[in-house]
Specification:
single chain; about 120 residues; mainly alpha; about 85% helix
């Protein structure tokens, strides 16, 4: 493998890692947005609950309570989905890093690697 090929592989690997990092960053920003929305919904639900209890009414029977609860559930699903996507991306990035480092070690001409290849050890 020539120097140009090694450089091309290194640049490709670097771009792949940066792209993965940017995807993770976007997912984390998405999580923050949904967490903010969820917190606002909790505040609204809490306000309804407080007003209902102050008046002696059932807070769940209130007009918007069920809708807020459903919206909270949806935001929690979105957060969970984004967290799962982050974990998958981190795993993929780690695998790519291991593959690149193994290839780099193999191409570096380290004596141990050459002996393993040559003698099947």
């Amino acid at each position: 493998m020539g120097l140009v090929d090694k450089a091309r592989d290194a640049v490709g690997f670097g771009i792949s890692q940066v792209t993965g990092f940017m995807k993770i960053l976007k997912l984390k920003l998405r999580i923050i947005g949904f967490a903010d929305k969820r917190n606002g919904l909790f505040m609204k639900l809490g306000e309804i609950t407080y007003k209902a209890s102050k008046n002696g009414a059932d807070p769940i029977a209130q007009e918007r309570s069920a809708a807020y609860i459903e919206e909270i559930k949806m935001t929690e699903l979105e957060i969970s989905s984004a967290e799962n996507d982050i974990n998958k991306r981190k795993s993929k990035s780690g695998s790519e890093r291991e593959t690149f480092m193994a290839q780099k070690k193999e191409d570096s001409g380290e004596p141990g690697v050459q002996a393993e290849d040559k003698y099947g050890a």
